[in-house]
Amino acid sequence: MPERVAPEVRILANAEAAVPFLLDEIRRAIAPRPAARGPALVGFATGGTYTAMLKALGAELDGRRIDGQSFVATHLDEYLGYPPERRGGMVHELGTNCPALLAMLRAGTFFPVPHVDADSALRAHDELLQRAGGVKLQFLGIGRNGHLAFNEPGTPFDSGFHRTRLAETTREDARARFAPEEPPREAVTSGLATILAADRLVLCAFGAAKAEAVAAMLRGEVSVACPASVLRQHRNVLVLLDRAAAQGLPGQQVAQGAC
Ligand code: GLP
Fold it and tell me: Has 78 been annotated as catalytic?
């Protein structure tokens, strides 16, 4: 049995305070590598949690303080039937917050999650990630119900890329983004095994609405009832929270970050 190392947990003032930590994670992941290994693959996450970080990353890339040639990019999930140019979709959101990612998409160095569920498309995407050496650094958010990407409660831990039905809480949380249309019912998502295969995982959660899911992730049973609890099976995880999201955790579990 490999030794388990509990996730490192840090408490920060807010999402903005997390930005320097997140940019440092990127810098470390893409630090010069042997030419044979090629540029590092960084997996981004969507959602309000990452807006500040994506905007800051855009400024770093535009200012060439982070070299856009030194990494390749991907992300976690996409609504079924939402190609990159469609408003509401995940690639559209990533490109809106960080236009440099759209330039990478055009250059073929940003690998979008397929918006169709054909087995061949999902397999090809997975193979693309493998050929890029696998995900070196994966950013993650968490749903109110403990989901990771769109792996809703009940998803097996050994899942790869797959088509999934969204939980009602997930659809409710996405409602404003699609108004006046109805939020989608289905998506294509990376699986929990896909996520666990990354070298390093960094999960952010901010706000009281996430407190219950965060406590279940770090303190509850490791079980498909809380998909994010699977992170406790990984040896290299950082969790960044604000105080509101951390309110269900005992004091000794958290290290104080720069507050
Ligand atoms: C969606 C994404 C998740 C993300 C979640 C959190 O459900 N599929 O990957 O973690 O949103 O979103 P927010 O950051 O807006 O709370």
Answer: no
